[in-house]
Structures are given as C-alpha cells and as structure tokens.
Amino acid sequence: MRRLPRFVVVLLLGVSVLLFLPHGSAQAQAPRLAAFQLQCYVPTIPGYHTRATFIATFVLENRTTWTVATCADGPSLATWPEFEDTDGAILVMYLVLMPVLENAEHDWVDYNYCETTSYKGYVTLRCAADPQGDGEAQVLVSITSPQ
What's this model's pTM, rounded to 2 decimal places? Predict the structure, then answer.
C-alpha cells in the first residue's frame, strides 16, 4: 500500500478544518445613495472661460474621505467617492470651491475662494470669480443617511 506524503495529509487536514470553522454570512456592503454635481457656467463676456476646483472632506462616524474635482465651462467629469451604510452618519462636511475667470488666452482675470461647512448630508455652494458674477461655479452634494 502506498502512503501519501506528510505534507499532503497536513494540507488536506488544514483545509477540512477551515471548512468546518464557524463563519459569518457573506454579505456585500449596502451601497448608500450619494449625488454630486460640479458645474462651471460659461461667462457672459464673449471669449472668456470659467474653471473651478472643488475640494471636500467628509467626516463620517466610521471613516473620513475626501475628493478633488475640477470643471471648465460645463459639468465636471470627476469620479466621486462612494459611501456605504457601515460608514455611519455624517458628522461634518468641509467644502471649498475656487472658481477662476480666464480670458481668451486662458490667462487669469480674476478668482475667488468660497468655503462652507455642513453638519447635514446636503449642501449647495455657489461662488463667482469676480464681483459682477462672471466665472461662476456651483457644487451640490447630497448623501443619504445610513439605513
């Protein structure tokens, strides 16, 4: 009769023990609905352009995450963060929006820096680069509460 090598026997025993150990149910994390929109509005001055940078920090009960997005004369094509129920409730959101008004040669004409803090899951922030309202950008953030 032929004997199995000791290594194979130990390996088979180890795998069979692992199969019988108690384990939790295999559940996927519940996704959480979140909506983001960053929009750069085309200035009323012909040939001028709007660019903006958005920076946000989201402090939740069990996780802190952040994002950076940009836009130019239209909506942002950024990849936004995803949230899950296990992240917990939103404690605070720090949002910064920096719009820039550029001329036809893409030289900076004016810029602004706007910031806000929110303790809820919804906020909009609108900011213009110059006092006349040109070079305007707007961001909307909406994150649902955990289930």
Answer: 0.77
